[in-house]
Amino acid sequence: STILYNDQFMAREQGKVDMEDRGYQFGDGIYEALRVYNGEMFLLDLHMKRLNRSARELRLTLPYDTDHLVENLNKLIKDNEMNDGYVYFQITRGAIARKHRFPEKPISSVLTASVEATTQDEDLYPDGIKASLIDDIRWLRCDIKTLNLLGNVLANQEAFEKGSAEAILHRDGVVTEGSTCNVFIVKDGVLITHPANHFILNGITRLFVLQLAEQLGIPVEERTYTTDELLDADEAFITSTGVRVTPVVQIDEHPVGDGKPGAITSRLLDAFNHEIA
Ligand code: PDD
């Protein structure tokens, strides 16, 4: 397959990064993952807005403006003849002799991008998933989409070892988000999700689902909720670029609601699928 390395297109095997790249040494960089449906990047503007915000928060200078980057990503999709799949790209602060503080003189940041083809419905679990509650041990800037994902990786692995498809993270009993997704519950017809502050990544899918809920007239509360509220919810689901809206039907040994995907969850998933058809 063809990848993008800075401004150059090349075969995957040709893409090499410097061993002193700060992304490699410190996780000093940012990324985005987008879905391509029918050859087009989905919710592109929101992803680019978030990318620019992440860069600002880390004082990382992007190598190209958004228009140029989008042009290159579109070329990458075309070169790989991809109709449905993912685009992943990351930008690190660049390569220089290892020192924690920022380089004294500006160095060029390093951009890499690749695509992965999937079928439209490959990563979906319409019957719902089992999730495990795991301690959220991550840092306090989870709102930035950085390459530092160790807290997420460890939680995801722990959930996997417990036979679960996802980790639902909590800080002292307050549910934050999943290891790779945002988490919603439904109680008495109200959709509830953690507010977009520094404890969670403000998912693009989360934003889209909030918009769909408004269109469908489903009441929404962006507020914190506890693990007890999660276990007592009528419905629960997760959202991300990959899983769209996926029901959570079991949390550790507890069924959620009646243990089947909930009605509001299904309405939101149907509305979502309608938008990408
Ligand atoms: N993960 N929260 C976390 C911690 C995430 O890693 C993600 C996405 C989300 C959902 O964001 P979005 O709806 O914009 O995909 C929430 C991506 C898919 C990943 O790391 O591969």
Structure explained in plain terms:
This protein has 277 residues and is an alpha+beta fold. The protein has 2 domains: 2-117, D-amino Acid Aminotransferase, Chain A, domain 1 (2-Layer Sandwich); 129-276, D-amino Acid Aminotransferase, subunit A, domain 2 (D-amino Acid Aminotransferase, Chain A, domain 2, Alpha-Beta Barrel), CATH 3.20.10. The protein has helices at 22-26, 44-57, 66-79, 150-161, 204-216, 227-231, 263-276; strands at 2-5, 8-11, 29-37, 40-41, 85-92, 110-117, 129-135, 166-171, 174-178, 182-187, 190-193, 220-222, 235-240, 244-251, 254-255. Strands 7, 8, 9, 10, 11, 12, 13, 14 and 15 form a 9-stranded mixed sheet that branches. A 6-stranded antiparallel sheet has the order 2-1-6-5-3-4. The chain is globular. The structure holds N-(5'-phosphopyridoxyl)-D-alanine (PDD). The site of N-(5'-phosphopyridoxyl)-D-alanine (PDD) has 15 residues, from helix 5 and strand 13. It is an enzyme of class 2 (transferase).
